[in-house]
Amino acid sequence: MTASSSSPPTAGSALPADLPTGLLIGGEWRAAGSGGTFAVHDPATTDVLAEVSDAGEQDALDALTAADAAFREWRTVAPRDRSELLRSVFEAITARTDEIAAVITAEGGKPLAESRAEVAYAADYVRWFAEQAVRMEGLARRAPAGTHHQLVLRKPVGPALLITPWNFPIAMIARKLAPALAAGCSVVVKPAQLTPLTTALVAEIVRAELAARHLPTGVVNVVPSSSASRISRPLLADPRLRKLSFTGSTEVGASLLKQAADGILRTSMELGGNAPFLVFDDADLDAAVEGAVAAKMRNSGQTCVAANRFLVQEGVAEEFTARLTEAFGRLVVGPGDRPGTTVGPLIQQSAVDRVTEVVQQADDAGAQVRVGGVRSEGRGWFYLPTVLDGVTPDMRVVTEEVFGPVAPVLRFGSEDEGVDLANATPFGLVAYAYTRDVGRVMRLTERIDAGMLGVNRGMVSDASAPFGGVKHSGLGREGGEAGIEEYVDPMYVAL
Ligand code: NAD
User: Fold this and answer.
1) What confidence tens digit (pLDDT) does each residue in 345-356 have?
2) 436-453 per-position pLDDT tens digit
């Protein structure tokens, strides 16, 4: 659909009346240069929620021009002022939790309780980087030969392009935007096409807080688009851009890394996962099942840290699988805004088709469906929580990131065999392990190839800790002390 007016399109009635649906460039909301829009759907009903301005190449370049101009001012703003801006954004996001959560559920489908938890998690990153903004330490010392003194300063890298996925529409932008602003960078955000509304709401909160403090509103620019490459190509080719931070699939990340190479850009890449969930014979099975449901079913299995392969030692395999089957059978599938729902829809029809295909392939190759194994009847993009037993390492449900509510169970004998299975993937984002043996835990820390390890926990992420992966799961870290380093360059001064 195209709109001829120059003002941005408006959101539907289910959304906050003041929800912006345009492009944010230089502190102003406006329509796309072409006047075009694209539709955002509610995955629980498939209805159109809103029409959003569809940015093109020139809009992207306008956003970079605004970001570049604002950067010159923002880099000189006192760290304390940057910190207090972020603190006020944290408070505004927290105060509007229910409103933001409703938008996340409307466009992404997850149950409202999960959306509220995502808002709290995202706000925590904003608060953490508000605290980090005033703790950017450098170095001063005499050179070892005594010939001069050395200062090491830390300077913002410059305007950054932030590209985010649809599965955590506020958390993924918070993990990038907060450290970028804390470090003194300006940004152009390209939100996921499927969930641009939450980003718009958050961007408006940041814009309003900047304006209220008479700070440069052009530090945050947002260009939703139906064609991601229409935004990323011209920006990655423009020498004013100094940084790319991407969260999404490994395939797209690898392609963006190649494009970023021409501009010798700093890059951060948070990519796909294929997390092993190891349950050893000595595990507390109640805790393991509870952790398994949390690690698998959050956002209907559509998380990069979702447990993708349940590797269970033979002594407890049958009991664990039976209890997991029972726990999955108790989950309540439905629209995210319906009270009692614990599992929402998948994001789109193609996601349901893909999950159906990989489960079918496993079934055909001899796996047993213990529960689920089918899409649900009626409207919306739903798939039932599924446990597959008798799975073998070559099945697609194991080799691929499933991104759906499916738990494949594989059995192993020795600890060595379990570790080998866990590492048998090109990915290395997170691993989970349930065991009561501290010696084994220490061996796992040495032998598991992943950026993160959850021990007797189904959730690991925390704003104060470095989040990120190894191998095909990415480069760089978000959160913790490391998160802000992604947006600064050291400058050595000899004097
Ligand atoms: P995706 O790679 O399809 O899209 C991610 C973003 O990149 C979106 O904004 C999309 O519009 C954009 N994009 C797509 N094609 C592009 C192109 N050719 N050029 C430039 N930009 C392009 O991923 P998705 O489906 O939105 O998200 C799911 C993936 O993200 C999964 O693989 C998941 O594991 C990963 N993910 C990783 C993390 C992490 O922190 N490691 C977190 C969340 C999601």
Assistant:
1) 999 999 999 999
2) 999 999 999 999 999 999
151: amino acid identity, one letter: L
- Is residue 418 predicted with pLDDT exceeding 90? yes
229 lines ligand 1 (CB under 6 A): yes
DSSP assigned state of 395: S
What does the pLDDT look like over 169-220, one tens digit per residue? 999 999 999 999 999 999 999 999 999 999 999 999 999 999 999 999 999 9
Is 156 strand, coil or helix?
strand
CA of 191 to the centre of ligand 1 (A): 10
Q: Residue 202: phi, psi to the nearest 5?
A: -65, -40
Superfamily of domain 275-463, CATH level 4? Aldehyde Dehydrogenase; Chain A, domain 2 (3.40.309.10)
Would you tell me how many other CB atoms lie within 10 Å of the CB of residue 164? 28
Residue 7's pLDDT is: 53
Length of the chain equals 495
Per-residue tokens: 84: 């207090």
DSSP designation for 8: P
Question: What's the mean pLDDT in 257-263?
Answer: 97
Q: How far is CA 391 from CA 93, 183, 384, 432, 488, in A?
A: 43, 47, 18, 19, 46
pLDDT at 8 > cutoff 80: no
Task: Please work out whether the CB of residue 248 comes within 6 Å of at least one atom of ligand 1.
Answer: yes
pLDDT at 139 over 80: yes
What separation in Å is there between the alpha carbon of 137 and the centre of ligand 1? 33
Q: Tokens 């951060």 belong to which residue? A: 268
Model pLDDT for residues 44-90, shown as the tens digit of each residue: 999 999 999 999 999 999 999 999 999 999 999 999 999 999 999 99
Tell me which of 121, 162, 163 to substitute to probe ligand 1's pocket, judged by most ligand atoms within 8 Å of the beta carbon: 163
Pairwise CA distance, residues 355 & 367, whole Å: 15
Q: Whose CA is nearest to atom 17 of ligand 1?
A: 229
Radius of gyration of the CA atoms of the chain, in A: 23
Class of domain 23-271+473-494: alpha beta
Nearest in space to 342 (alpha carbons), one of 305, 294, 378: 294
Q: Is 232 in the pocket of ligand 1 (CB under 6 A)?
A: yes
Assess contact for 103 and 21: CB atoms under 8 A. Answer: no
| Domain residue ranges in the chain | 23-271+473-494, 275-463
Positions marked active-site: 270, 304
C-alpha separations of 194 from 77, 306, 376 in Å: 35, 20, 22
Q: Please report which confidence band the pLDDT of residue 3 belongs to, taking 50, 70 and 90 as the band edges.
A: very low
Q: State both tokens at 208.
A: 């309003």
Distance 134 CA to ligand 1 centre (A): 32
